[in-house]
Design goal:
With about 300 residues, the protein is of the alpha/beta class. It has a single domain, classed as NAD(P)-binding Rossmann-like Domain (Rossmann fold, 3-Layer(aba) Sandwich), CATH 3.40.50.720. It has eight helices and seven strands. A seven-stranded parallel sheet has the order 3-2-1-4-5-6-7, sandwiched between helices. Helix 1 packs across helix 8 and helix 6 packs across helix 7. The longest helix is centred in the middle third of the chain and has 26 residues. About 60% of the residues are buried.
Amino acid sequence: MDLGLRGARALITGGSRGIGFAIADALAAEGASVGLVARGADGLAAAAGRLARHGVPVTTAAADVTDTAALGRAVEDVAAALGGLDRLVANAGGTIGGNITSSGPGDFTATFALNAGHAVELIRTALPHLRSVGGGAVVIISSITGMRPAPRTSYSVAKAAEIQLAATAAAELAADNVRVNAVSPGSILFPGGSWERFSQENPADFAAFLGTQFPFGRLGRLEEVADVAVFLLSARASWITGANIVVDGGQGYPSARRFRAGADSAANEPEAGRRPGADGKGRRAGGPQPTPSLGSAAGPPEATRDIT
């Protein structure tokens, strides 16, 4: 099926690895020009090199998506390099803190800013470009954790906000011929991601999770999420807007950990504490959710997300 994306111009946050890169790769394979935004210049350069085989324009911009001014500059830089924008993917995200009982002051606010907050600012900043070409399409990468309560509470609430944002923005922006949808992946396994690390460090817990929550006996793959996102960005999905498309293979509980009772609540979270995460649009549905820090690295890239 030709998705009609040749010549489209797409910006993907958290685009240097994981789900974000998989979406960029699939878009480029369809002939779209792509702009990648993430914190790390080295990772962006490597990602751009991997996309070169498609023979389409590729540009990058290093930015912390929680820095509104920096994100705005990245949007303008990408739009200038590609000659405009008509597709957006809000993929960057993650979690700061954890549950209510284990989060510090401001952790919930920071997690919201990293997820739904950055998605709003991306849409707001890029909207003039979409309007100038008569409309476009937006995909927000959320998580099944935003639909089904599980540790970590801060992340779950922020991902739920993204699902509602897609529905509300779709209604608001229909007059501009802009479609907005959310994609909620389940747990996605890929090399270097959080689930791979969790499976190596906690083999018994991973085996129990795999054996009880996945009807097909495996976690999802990057391309299975990317294919859905790219379809939603295409004209083939012209009558789909305000939707939340679940891509989880029928997964049950979204986390490899569960809330515990009483005084043991501090142990509710896997890898509890404020440690950097390492995924690539990695950390989505519950499970191994290492906590990124917003310290010297200045804002979370694709590598600070819960990997689904």
